[in-house]
Amino acid sequence: MKALLVIDVQNGVVDLGDFKEELSYMESVIKDFQSKDLPVIFMRHFDDMEESPLFEGSEGSKLHSSLDQYASNVIDKRTPNSFYNTTLQKELEKLGVTHLFITGFNTEFCCMFTAITAFDKGYKVTFIEDATGTVNTEDTYEMKGLDIRDFVGTVLDWSEVIEVLDFEEYAEKYTSLGSS
After folding, report:
1. What residue segments make up the domains of the chain, in order of their start?
2. How confident is the model at residue 176 (pLDDT cuts 50, 70, 90)?
3. Could you tell me which CATH number the domain at 2-174 has?
4. Separation CA 170–CA 168 (nearest Å)
5. By the 8 A CB rule, do 10 and 62 touch?
6. Among 7, 68, 86, 95, which one has the highest count of C-beta atoms within 10 angstroms of its own C-beta?
């Protein structure tokens, strides 16, 4: 069975940039999964430091209003890895999930760590590159010209164990318009 992870779509992240396109792609994938009665699991990250925008209980830690209406299944986490010290694996096992689709924030942290761990745990993994986003830039990493999302997607794709698609490829391959 397939399942979708929507990682850290929270005010403290989304409000730091213009993510209209990424959120639109995430919403389309969510609706596609829900139309097929496939599980959609939201991950919510909490930080322990009060000054963090993701401090538990803060406005920043809440799911963003653009997608929160779809969040009937939410699992909390405190590290970039959605599996570490969470109930995610038990939930996936209970649902009989074998193929995990990754969307959300931040591409190079929580999304990438979760994708790699999911593969290590035996799941088939599809990373929908342009349905992820990051608040970081080329300046964050002092790497002129760096396209973080493309870089992460390329690295995961080169692994030859994680399927990396853009939204159009996902729609063609997996939605009701394409094959399942």
Report:
1. 2-174
2. low
3. 3.40.50.850
4. 5
5. yes
6. 7
